[in-house]
Amino acid sequence: MTRILQNKTILLGVTGSIAAYKAAGLASQLTQAGAAVDVVLTREATQFVGPLTFESLTHRHVVADVMALLPDSQIGHVALAKRADLFVIAPATAHTIAKLAHGLADDAVSATALDTRAPLVIAPAMETGMWENAVTQDNVLRLVARGAVIVEPGVGRLASGASGRGRLADLDDIVDTVRAVLGRGGDLAKRKVVVTAGGTAEPIDPVRVIANHSSGKMGFALAEAARDRGARVALIAGVTSRRVPRGVEFVAAPSAVEMRDAVLRAVEGADALVMAAAVADFRPAHAAEQKIKKGKTETLTLELVRNPDILQEVSRHPSRATRHMVVVGFAAETQELLANARAKLESKDLDLIVANPVPSAFGSDVDQATLLARDGTVTELPALPKEELAEKILDWLAGRFA
Fold it and tell me: Is the distance from CB of 36 to CB of 28 less than 8 angstroms?
């Protein structure tokens, strides 16, 4: 489960778009993440997906008529509007967006939107011409000015068979936006947190690199969790195939030198750096301009030079002194885990180090870690999903700020 969605009531409005079938997947995803999901449908939406589908997924009563009553005789759209922590409308048609912009309330979705005081997230879906029409864009701007958050439609094949902008955004992007909006005002609000993730790749020639097994899962989990707690997040990633989460500033830095440069820029004005990336200690002294051919030789000798020590350079950065920037490092070790982690904690001038054995450090969804703080506190954690470990690390960080 995602912590930010647990015990939250999410109101999902579904309107008459062919993309309405995707809303069933959204309802399921939010429910599995721990949210209670209430669904309101326009009459047109029921022509694509019926109430029973959503009731089966959420195990909650669905409102599909502005005049409908709940089983306890409360007015449906009024009761749902009052108990919602957030209202997401996905898909939102051009017609619905126009009604929301002008305060009309003639169906269950628009009436609920007018009544609720919960934050509003809107994910449009329509033909390209309708989306790009000046009237639609003006209506969107009106809603944004009133505080609505728009998850812009994607580009791709549309129901008409044409291709263009207008597809409903990916469900993961919609969920990311819901999480980020719910996280406003969290315990890391108004803090800037820089997170690094993934491994680096040091070129040998245009084809080959020196790399490691880091997947980036830990760093991405930290970035998403920090965003969910209200932080302004800069995510600097090395080599990874993971989807870039919405709501963070993303910088690609595939090599150690590029990551050093990106980190030193990003920590300007930062409150914390969480250095989860697995940065290569060495790189080839000279990368060949052309692919090295095997030829008849049986061996290949590479001259390696040390990469810059990013954490050592950060320790001398002005933000470390002027903003009392908190620095968290990671130690992935194959032997003498705690002794090596303690040595790194001291030599890099860290505030916290996360020590984990190599078998669980790379690629796995579960990690076993020990947190060692500068003040000597040692916290041994059980094996946890990386999302939960990220929350534990950020719990420590939030406590440090407090």
Answer: no
- Give the closest residue to 325 by CA, choosing from 193, 181, 201, 232: 193
Integer Cα distance of 264 and 327 in angstroms:
13
Cα–Cα dist 370/214, whole Å: 19
User: Is 18 a member of any domain?
Assistant: yes
State percent of the chain over pLDDT 90.
Answer: 85
284-322 pLDDT, tens digit each = 999 999 999 888 788 889 999 999 999 999 988 888 888
Whether 307 sits among the annotated catalytic residues: the reply is no
CATH of the domain at 124: 3.40.50.1950
Both 244 and 309 in one domain: the answer is yes
Are 245 and 374 in a shared domain? Answer: yes
Same domain, 226 and 82: no
Output the domain CATH number for residue 197. 3.40.50.10300
Alpha carbon 167 to its chain's center:
21
**For residue range 238-251, what is the model confidence (pLDDT) as tens digits?**
998 899 999 999 99
φ, ψ (nearest 5 deg) of residue 66: -60, -20
Q: Which residues of 320-347 are buried (b: 16+ CB within 10 A; e: fewer)?
A: beebebbbbbbbbbeeebeebbbebbee
What average pLDDT does the segment 63-82 reach? 89
187 occurs within a structural domain = no
User: How far apart are alpha carbons 402 and 395 in whole angstroms?
Assistant: 10
Asked whether the beta carbons of 198 and 255 are under 8 A apart, the reply is: no
Question: Given 133, 212, 307, 340, which residue is catalytic?
Answer: 212
Domain that holds residue 323: 192-289+298-401
Residues 223, 159 share a domain = no
Count the domains in the chain: 2
Check whether residue 114 and residue 71 sit in a common domain. Answer: yes
Task: Specify whether 178 is located in the same domain as 199.
Answer: no
